[in-house]
Sequence to fold (270 residues):
Amino acid sequence: MTVATSTVVAPGTSFTRLVAHQFNADLRCFLRNKESVFWTLAMPVVFLVIFCSVFQHQNVAVSGGRIDEPVYYVPGIIAYGLIAATFTNLGVSVVRYREAGIYKRRRATPVSATALIAARALAAALSALAITVVLLVIGWAAFGAHIPGRTGPAFLLDVIVGAVVFCCLGFAVASVVKKADAAQPVILGIILPLCFISGVFIPILELPHWLIDVGKIFPVHALADALLGAYNPHTLGSGLDWVDLAVLAGWGVAALVIATRRFSWLPRGT
Fold:
């Protein structure tokens, strides 16, 4: 594994320049890790092709009527790809860097915890936007799933809010995982069940009502539902769902508080 190291930063450097400097280092580190790039960017594409190809001649009930099942799965897999690029990849890498002593060494530099969190979140958000664009184009070109013009701004807002929120959640969960070897199993153990009960891999109206109600508590459902609303041709108006955005914002604020208060420069698994 190749780890990108940042160059020396002079004391007194502004917060913005610190964030930009660290963002550049984190982005290079991500791009040099070929495994991380593949699993973050390629797996959502594989899932999209499999689900949309298997169910391409079926339709599914959604709010307001029925839509082709590939159209249903495109926003769901976009939600999964966004979460993989932010929550999963970020959480695993933060634990790995902390336990490897990389953050301990960075403590001697002028980079504050806030700047470090902001820069790492920006790098994760950029990869989330990249996979979103790739899935959006494939969904449109291969499966005829497109976003109505009136809901386009809502879709963009949902993606931005979702990326920010799941970056915060990635840092929050990383703060409670003590060992690098446990990071990926713990994070996947959290996110995969939530994807199944939130309408990402299974059409939401095919789930038991009690399971739907449980899923609505969590941010995965809020993101998937908001993106589906933007794709759903039966959606009225702008497509903005303020309830979903409120759920996302609530989880994001709580995660940010946990991340900033529990952030550790030192390994915790020893």
